[in-house]
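Hey, resending since the last one bounced:
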Amino acid sequence: MCRQISYLCYNAEGLRSIGTLVNETNPGTFTYYIRIDDDGSADRTATFFGNLTEQIEKVCADLEAHPILANAPAINALGFSQGGQFLRAYVERCNRPRVANLVTFGSQHNGISEFQRCGANDWVCRGWDGLLKGQTWTSFAQSRLVPAQYYRDPADLDSYLENSNFLADVNNERAVKNAAYKRNLQRLDKFAMYIFADDKTVVPKESAWFSEVNTTTGDVTKLQDRQLYKEDWIGLKTLDEESRLDFRVTEGGHMQLSEDVLVDVFKTYFGLDSDARLDL
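The structure tokens again:
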């Protein structure tokens, strides 16, 4: 008996325990773990190296060909950190099978203006950080380095709009809009965006709510005050006006999640009243 279809997008230790918690909260849930490669090491590498357009195309093909998911009337999706904006891209670009409820935690929906800070003695990290900072807008970085593909500096939007391989496209920020992105995102029953109150990893943390932060003054422009919302480039205004867009806060730093928070998410958005439940 499969009462509900859900899947997770996140490569980290503890993922399987989250899948177990989903099933304990909503018994009979079929849980699918998105992966770019069946080899665990290669899959982890793909979180930093790879072309996001190609990776999302693979996810679209995998889900559409899955013997259970392909026949589901709808599924639920849960994405952590960068997995959240990648899941949103899945919704916008293909959405077969359709996502009913999308929940993201600490995701960089409006990009990052700083790359992740490295530890004082983490020389490998510092080496890649130097590469990212020095070549952000090169074709090499935009086709191979994952964080560069959702980098967005409000002080240099021209470079971003001209060169961004991923974020500028899925946020429909260029002059020519993709109507399918808006149409597909508007099909969500709920889109819940969680921000970590003390997030120091994602800069700016407000990106989790599509807010824009001035890198000089620190002034925050809320989603509702941005053209992205006012002109409804990807359907967020429609979702918000119909009470289908939720802005949520959870305590702690980046990816510091309690079981209570997760259980609440599973009950609220992935419960048996969800349109995504399925009996097989």
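Strands lie at 4-9, 29-33, 75-80, 99-105, 190-196, 212-213, 220-221, 245-250.

Sorry for the duplicate.
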